Amino acid sequence: EGLVTAEEERHGVGRPRLVYFLTEKGIERFPKYYLKLTSRLLNQLKATLPQDTVQKMMRELADKLAEDYPQNGKNSTGVSEKLAVLKEVLAQEGFSIDWEKQPDGTYVINEISCPYYHISHEHPELCLLDQSLISSLLGMPVEQVTCVLHGDKVCSYVVQDDKTL
Fold this sequence. Notes:
Elements: E1 4-9, E2 17-22, H1 24-27, H2 34-48, H3 51-67, H4 79-92, E3 96-101, E4 107-113, H5 117-120, H6 126-138, E5 143-146, E6 155-159
Antiparallel strand pairs: 1-2, 3-4, 4-6, 5-6
Helix pairs in contact: 3-6
């Protein structure tokens, strides 16, 4: 199942023995407390800094995250090409998205899964991180039109048609 790997270890005379290690996939099966730590860090930031500073930090974090992906959609020519690149990049960050072109020429991006889903209930400013990341990766503004935190089935964003850019 790819949970364990083994390496030979020599220890003098005789057959080498096998030493077993958990793979990254195996480590992920153990309990983690990332959510608690993340929530505590965000609580501390929000208690220490003004709200506009926290929001600015989310936008800057999204920009820095986008810089990690030189293949981002900014260099693509059309919106559909940019969205194809966006889908690949966001998958590497734990998102699952789909998108469709509307009759009015706009594109709707639907977040099927979000890696911040659990923590965003307590810290909705993470939605700003999502929106800013998508905008930064595309190199164009996006507008959030639905949000799971408001009772919608998915978070959705609208991007304008190529002709209006």
